[in-house]
Write a structure and sequence with these properties.
The protein has two domains: 193 residues, Periplasmic binding protein-like II (D-Maltodextrin-Binding Protein, domain 2, 3-Layer(aba) Sandwich); 152 residues, Periplasmic binding protein-like II (D-Maltodextrin-Binding Protein, domain 2). Strand 1, helix 4 and strand 2 form a beta-alpha-beta unit. The longest helix is centred in the N-terminal third of the chain and has 15 residues. The strands form two sheets. Strands 1, 2, 3, 4, 9, 10 and 11 form a seven-stranded mixed sheet that branches. A four-stranded mixed sheet has the order 6-7-5-8. By secondary structure, it is of the alpha/beta class. The termini are far apart.
């Protein structure tokens, strides 16, 4: 993980050091908030989240039990939730966004989120600590997870055991049988695009990588899906042979007993990005929102996350499911987060133009 730090944390820590002294609350290191403090804050929390039901159900009921706070969860795609938060900024209806917060999204909506750095942030490895005084990281998302329905894949005359890479997505037999999101509207699809651009060129993010992306777009045959859940569910249901997805929900399907699904981490390289949570500026239950972040980063919250198919941001906690492939068996790549954030609008527009031209 030191390499990750070297490519993307120099600028982050410059602003993060300032924020650490201004946003902390009274949550003790490694502990969650108390029930009495929750009552003083009003006892309610409205959470916007693009996360899977599995992750939400692992942490929200436990947080409610520990704090006495009643949590209302509103789910949706990251793009839709961010648009909603921005449209409500004169009168916020939500208190926190749990998932989907990235440096690029913070850059796009700089006035929609409040500064807050939990005292529990210090429990995390330095490379995953608070970004910009606003984004707290609670788990690690594998952004390059290729989910295969072995039955459908085999029916196309292909051998699932030989599928190992991004390059295999260009097989002509797969045309129209690949599920992919829209990087202009989906945070997971955006992460998948930047992963491709990182590893599929001669140099990272170069013209050769975009040339490969153009060929991949051609093999989509005009298909993109408007939510990340439709990708892995579509593959599971046999609508698609391959889904370009992310690790957590794909592993969850396999853990749940799906015997006809296979998860592949592309041999060219797979990126893990820290998933972010942030307090909505001007929200009605700000203290409770901060308590939720304190809980997520506490040992108790991180261990709750480890019971799901997500990897905790506190890498000292390793009691994840045995069906999750260890990092030692994966070609882990390291994204330049700041560089990708700076080029997000440009690259999203380029994807859209290429997709429109191809169809």
């Amino acid at each position: 993980m030191k390499k990750f730090l070297s490519v993307c944390l120099t600028a982050v820590m410059a602003v993060g050091l300032c924020a650490c002294s201004s946003g902390s609350t009274a949550a003790a290191s490694g502990t969650a908030a108390s029930g009495s403090a929750a009552a003083a804050a009003g006892g309610k929390l409205v959470v916007y989240s693009p996360n899977t039901d599995d992750l939400i159900n692992a942490v929200v009921p436990l947080f409610e039990e520990k704090t006495g706070i009643k949590v209302d969860v509103i789910t949706g795609g990251t793009g839709d939730l961010l648009t909603r938060i921005d449209s409500e900024k004169e009168n916020p209806q939500g208190d926190i966004i749990f998932g989907g917060m990235t440096p690029a999204n913070l850059l796009k909506y700089p006035d929609d989120f409040a500064e807050y750095t939990s005292s529990n942030d210090a429990l995390l490895p330095e490379e995953y600590q608070n970004y910009g005084g606003v984004i707290s990281h609670y788990c690690l998302d594998g952004s390059a997870a290729l989910l295969i329905n072995t039955d459908i894949y085999s029916s196309l005359g292909l051998d699932p055991e030989k599928f190992t890479s991004y390059a295999d997505l260009l097989q002509p037999e797969l045309k129209g049988h690949i599920a992919m999101g829209d990087p202009a509207n989906s945070s997971s699809a955006w992460a998948e695009l930047t992963n491709m651009l990182l590893v599929m060129g001669k140099e990272k993010y170069d013209d050769a990588a975009w040339e490969w992306v153009g060929k991949f777009i051609g093999n989509l045959d005009g298909i993109t899906l408007d939510s990340s859940s439709k990708i892995y569910k579509g593959v599971s249901d046999g609508e698609y042979a391959v889904g370009v997805s992310y690790e957590d929900p794909c592993v969850n399907l396999i853990v749940s007993g799906a015997t006809n699904l296979k998860l592949v981490y592309p041999s060219e390289g797979a990126v893990w990005l820290p998933a972010g949570v942030a307090v909505i500026k001007g929200c009605q239950n700000e203290d409770n929102a901060k308590m939720f972040i304190d809980f997520l980063l506490s040992d108790e919250g991180q261990n709750a996350i480890a019971t799901t198919t997500a990897r905790p941001a506190n890498t000292k906690i390793t009691n994840t499911t045995e069906l999750m492939t260890p990092f030692s068996d994966i070609n882990v790549a390291y994204e330049d987060i700041d560089y990708c954030s700076e080029h997000k609008s440009e690259w999203q527009a380029k994807w859209t133009d290429m997709f429109t031209s191809a169809n």
